[in-house]
Structures are given as C-alpha cells and as structure tokens.
Amino acid sequence: MFFLLALLLLALAPATAAGQVAEWSRRTGTIAADEAFGVAVDASGIYLVGDADGILPDLERAGKKDAYLRKYDAAGNVLWTRQFGSVFDDAAMAVAADASGIYVAGSVGPAEADFTNINRHDVLLRKFDVDGNLRWSRQIDSVGTPQNDAALAVVVNGNAIYIAGYTRGPLPGQNPQGGFDAFVSKYNLDGNELWTRQFGTKKVDVAVGIAANATGIYVLGETDGALPGQANAGELYDIFLRKYAADGTELWTRQFGTSGLEFPGGVAADSSGVYIVGTTSGALPGQTNRSGYDAFARKYDDNGAEIWTRQFGASSDALAYGAALSGGHLFITGNVVGMLPGQLGSGGSNEDVFVRKYDTSGAEIWTRQFGAEVRDTAAAIAVNSTGIYVAGSVPRILLSPEPIGDWDGVLTKLVEVPLASPVIHAGGVVNAASLLPQAPLAAGSVASVFGLHFSPTGQERAVVRLNGIAAPVFASTDTQINFQVPWEMAGLAQATVTVTVGVATSSPVTVPLASSAPGLFSTSGSGSGQGSILVGTLGVLAAPTGAFPGSRPVNRGELVSIYATGLGAVTNPPPTGVAGSGSPLSATLAAPAVFIGGVQAAVPFSGLAPGYAGLYQVNAIVPPGTPTGNPVSVVLTIGESTSNTVTLAVQ
Q1: Who is most buried in 46, 436, 592, 605, counting CB within 10 A?
Q2: What is the pTM of this model?
Q3: b/e map of 231-258 (b: 16 or more CB within 10 Å)?
Q4: Domains of the chain
Q5: Closest CA to 154 of 358, 382, 333, 315
C-alpha cells in the first residue's frame, strides 16, 4: 500500500511556506545549567541577559549562579560578555537599551561587591555602556527581617529608567500590604532613585513587566487578591495592568481574569496604546478557549479602555511570555505544546517556541512555530530593522552548534523576507488522476492545483480554500498542491479556489463541479499510460513482467483493483480529510461501468479505498473476451461522466 500512497497521492515531503526565516541561533552557557531571560536591541547590537551556573568562556565566576550580559552583532557574533554577581545565586532578568546606555535589572545575593546587604536577595539595577564598561550599580533591599526582592522588568524612556518587580518586605519609605507586594521605581540616568511605589493586596502580588510611552508608565503583573477598586475574577491568579504618571501618580488600574488561572507575560507601549500578552486557562470575555492553556494579546488605549483582545490556542497549550513593538506592529513570543493552526513545529511532544505578528488593529499578520524535538522555551522578544530576536533556553541543538551545558540560554534571530504571491495557472485546478483541463471536480475527490510560489522557505503550510473552506493538503511543491475537494462542495455547480501562503493569497479562480468526475490514476502521474491497477490480492501492478517490482500481466477472469478518484457520493461517508473506513465499507451510490479492451467488466465493488482520503477503489473482473497483450485500454464511466484512459497488461 505504500506503493499506492507514493504513486497516487504524490506524497512528496511537504513543502512549507512563510515569510520568516530563522537566520541564526546562538547558545550561551557553561558546563552546568544556564538560562536567558531578557533581550534588547539598539543601533550597535543585541543584548542578552540571564543566569549562568558555571564559568562563561574567558570569565571568572563570582559565586553560585551568576548574572550575565552578552552583546552580539546582527550577524550573531559575540562582541563581549560580562559575568557578575555575589557569592550566592544571582540573575539578570531583564535588559533595556538606548543611546544613553544598557540597563540590566534582576536579583543579587547578600555579598554583591561594593554593597552591604542583610537580605537573602535584593533588587539589582546596573548600567553599562555599549562597550561593556560598568557605569554604576544599585542594590535595593527591603527593610527589617531579611526577605526576597527582585526586579523582573526594566524600561528606559527619555531621561528616566523604570524597574518593576516584587518584594517580601517594606522597601525604603513604603508600606507593605502583606505577602509579596509589587513595586515600581524610577531612576534618572545617573542611577539616582526619584521615587518608588509599593502596592498589592494581603495575598501575592508580583509585577513582571513594564513599558512606557509619552503619556505614562505601565506596570503589568499578577495578583491572587483584589487590588483597590478592583474585583478578583476567580479563586486563582488574575492579571493587572496599572498606569502611573511620570511623577509616580497612579492614573488607573485594570484587573481581569476568568474562573481559571491567568498569568501575565509581557507589555509594550507606543503612541497607539499599550499591549499586553499572557496566558489563561479559561475564556476571556468574547473569546473561546481552544485548549487547556491559551495565549492572548490585548490592547488598551491610554485611558485604560480595552480596544481588542485576541485569544488563541494550539492542539494542546499555548503560553505567551514576551511582547515588543516595531514599525507599527506587535510581536509576541511564547511556548506552544502541540501545533498552532497552520504550523508544523518540531514534531515533538514537548514545548516549541512561537512568534506571532499583529497589526495595531489586532489582525494577525503571520505566525511562526519552531523548535527541536525536546523542550524549547521563550522568555522575551526584541525587534528592530535588523531582525526579530527571541531569548529563551534550550537543552539541545536548535539551529546551533553542539550544546555547551545540560541547559543553555539561546538567542534566535528571525528575519522577514518578501514573498511572491501565489499564482494559480489558468485551467490549473484539475482532477489529480486525469489532469484533464477545464473538466469538473467532484466533492471528496483528490485534485491538483498548478501554479507558482506555493512553497517559500518557512514553517507555515500552503492553504487551499474552496468557497472559503480549507481543504486537506496531501502534498505540496512550489508549483503543485494535491488536495481533497471538501465533501461540503456536494450539490454545488461551481467553487471558488484560492491558495494562501503565509500572508499572501492568490487571485481566486472558479472551477466547475459535478456529482461525479472520474479520473483513473496512472503510475507516471500523467493521466495516461500504465494504470495504477493491481492484480487481485497480490498487490502487484498489472503490467508487463519486470516493468515494475513484482509486476505481471493479469489473466482473463482474474480480479483487478483499479484506483481512481471523483466517483462521487458514497454510503457511510467520512468527514473531509478522513480516510475511508474498512468496516463498513463506503460504496459509491452510483454503479460505474468498467471497460477493459473495450469489453465491459463485472464490478463486484466500487467505493472508497480503506485507509485513504479521497481515493476510490474499483474491483473489476477481466472479461473472457478481453484482448491480450500490452497495452490494453481501461476506461470507466459513472453517471454521464467518462474517465481518462489508462492501460494494463493482459495475458
């Protein structure tokens, strides 16, 4: 049966199509476990931050886990690396960059050089210049009993730096609310603190993201309580977005969620508004949950009014962790278990990385899913004119050299490339067996569309639609796609066909439809010559001996199986894209007539071939009066339609 699959459905390795190419991926790591948490870009390079549990090349270790900052150029070359920390565990969680410098935020243990610390972990903020020189460092601890504090986000906006994170105790001059509190702090470019705001509930509150535009500063986080003036949507964590003025005045707060679990990912802002991404196990208002965990993106205006929400999922889970704005578009990244719609992914059962692009109105531009067959994680995204940069971690090879440790930080660059729009040739939508131009198609049959630009480099599939319904695609090349005509086309006189590759869609073409439009498969795929006809139950071609592996001529009175498509409606019809059943069989409603060498043959069965979608099998008995030799013609009629002619060998 593999012979049939290869010959009849032209099951080539599926070609893929997209406008995004992974240009390179670079690992950062030691012989131990290391991760990457943040990424930023400026005119001179790309900055990656994370933690390292060993010694990075040509550097010294400060203690246990150290923080690191690494700079790359746009070609993926390492320009410099800085490893730093205390004698305990430290981490660089976020990075921001502009013409004034590089700002790293995270957490540091008690023995950070040049600081006095009585707490277990403190907030860390450092400034470097573009050459990696340390300009200043600030360590902020809560007052009183040693507690854990950390900065998880940083943004630079004009002449100020803003950080956000969490604290377990009171920060200087602040009043704790209980449990973990969120905080936001403002510094000038020289590292002087201008103000801090600590806030929360009696439960757990954490700020994970921060963004700024000309109208204010936006803090994204999570709470399992109810912030002042807000309500908790369920018993689990909600997401909050709070806006401050530049002087630290709270302007508004929005808390939202479902009866399930929500957690925030990233936030970005520009003159068009503020955008947040995250994950929900429920269904946000007006949205539908596709799987266990769905990712979402949401836009607010500067006054806190929700503009739009887009919730989406995969065959299992989708989780969004990072957001960036560039060129009037929103880019988000995260993890996916299974496959997002229209994506191929790694084929593994663990997490892949995805990147999705929206315009500011919430229209999806494209999606790219990629990864290895083991778990790959995404933590942050940054975008500029040179490319799309995703920071994360990976335990094995992902477009890069041999792994350095058992878990490495990784930076992957994607670039958008211009795509030529797909083109369907005139008369280019045909029965995949007969290939007859201008002939009608039948619902449920296998068809081919011929044209150009069907498979640029990438991970998204080409999509064929008939009257807007996506058709199952069996195989694709740059110039041909084999697909099944949806059973939903039954009873229609014509259909409009389009091909979409990435974000580009062909001009529509109209094809005629009929209740039956038979086509007989040939071994050459040309619609003529040796037919795809097997001898009885032997599974060998009814062709001259030696012409194909195991082939031999059929005897008069012997049964042959003729493989075809387009024979129309059947009993026990399967859904579109689903193979024919072996029990019960799906027999054609109309009985075909088969002529072998011009002599009509008895047909004990005609219906869908079990195990294949759109493929029909017609069993016929070679009549006693059939002429012998090779080639002997075979033709089939059903209703008022006649197939193409193929041949077999008779002895």
Answers
A1: 46
A2: 0.69
A3: ebbeebbbbbbbbbebeeeeeebbbbbb
A4: 2-14+420-514 (2.60.40.10), 20-416 (2.120.10.30), 519-650 (no CATH)
A5: 382
